[in-house]
Amino acid sequence: MIRFPSALRRSKPDIAVDFGTSNLRLVSRDGGIIFDEPSLCCFSRQDGVTEFVAAGAAVRAMLDRTPRGLTIKHPLCRGVLQDIEAAKELLRFALSQTRSARSVRSPSALIGIPADATQAERSAMLTAANDAGFGAVELISEPLAAAIGAGIDVEAPRGALLVECGAATTEVSVFALGGSCAAGSVRVGSTTLDQAIADYLHLEHKFLIGHNTAEEMKLDYAGRQQSSSCSSSVSITAKGRCLRRGLPMTLEIPLSELDRIVDRHFEQIVRVVHDVLAQTPPELSQDIFDVGVILTGGGALVPRIADMIAQATQLRVTVAADATHCVAKGLHHLLQA
User: Fold this and answer.
1) Fewer CB within 10 Å, N or C, the chain?
2) Is residue 64 left, alpha or beta, with left meaning phi > 0 and alpha meaning psi from -120 to 50?
């Protein structure tokens, strides 16, 4: 059984936090996911004074639309904390939305964090959580939580290869006997794919699109890829601004052109999977050959990543059920353990 380290050993945590680059999720022992909103904060600055304005879903519609004096901040960048103040305000907002008005005690928490996070990054997360009003906080590896959420028996004497495709970080881990036997990561994920699409349109077509439009294009692309009847000659429409004419316009992008962007982006993940397999002991390699590769995280919903890994490794690749919420489901399991 996975046990909590000494800081939380006397009592189970009250709440778990899946703090992702794209979304923040709070998980309770009895209610499961009780908060799930974008990891965004909005601040105003007037006369040299910065004030918190809004967080979460309310800020999403503000992206690329804020007037002078308002700033939108992302607490995390490429999977790790980059703005402690924004993280503190977002955590405080989430806690206020889920906390009973009669509750005065600071809840203890279990927070997921990338397995390769540095000590400084871990300390920053602890500081943000404590400043937001949490009590005792323990950090746990997100790939481990994802593996548990995907239904992998991480304590079995049998190897399992997990690829956690997060918003900005992809982590590859081989689990057996309750621990990680081989691991690797790359700062690439579903939101960095959004940026890659926007950058490509800017460079190749002299066409500017916003964050939300890039994400919509990616989701449209993923949906069409899942359709067996979809032809590569089909196009996706993007709305933005043409730099050549300086006017709002629409642009038709063939799926085949997006294929090249996605392939080039996900090649980095395939290389990490190959590197982790190369350092895996022979007996665990046999287990992985029998079981295959399991994908979790929002990035796993882009079908091409599974196809690329399968082609490169000649292994069976499976996308976990409810892949987007595997970390949260694993944290929920640990709360109940």
Assistant:
1) N
2) left
The residue to which tokens 């970080």 are assigned: 169
- Rounded to an integer, the average pLDDT of 61-82 is 88
Residue type, 319: V
CATH superfamily of 190-260: ATPase, substrate binding domain, subdomain 4 (3.90.640.10)
Give the strand order in the sheet containing 170-176. Answer: 179-186, 170-176, 160-165, 293-296, 317-319
**Of 78, 38, 43, 79, the residue nearest 60 (C-alpha):** 38
- Whole-number mean pLDDT of the chain? 91
Residue 135 phi, psi (nearest 5):
-90, -125
Contact 320, 326 (CB under 8 A): yes
Is 54 in a helix, a strand, or coil?
strand
Q: Tell the burial category of 330 from Cβ atoms under 10 Å away from its Cβ (0-12, 13-18, 19+).
A: buried
The tokens for 209 are 């699109």
pLDDT of residue 32: 92
Q: Please give the class, per CATH, of domain 150-189+262-323.
A: alpha beta
Q: Which two tokens stand for residue 115?
A: 């397995």
Phi-psi region of 229 (alpha: psi -120 to 50; beta: other; left: phi over 0): alpha
The residue assigned the tokens 């904390």 is 81
* 50, β-bridge pairs: 45
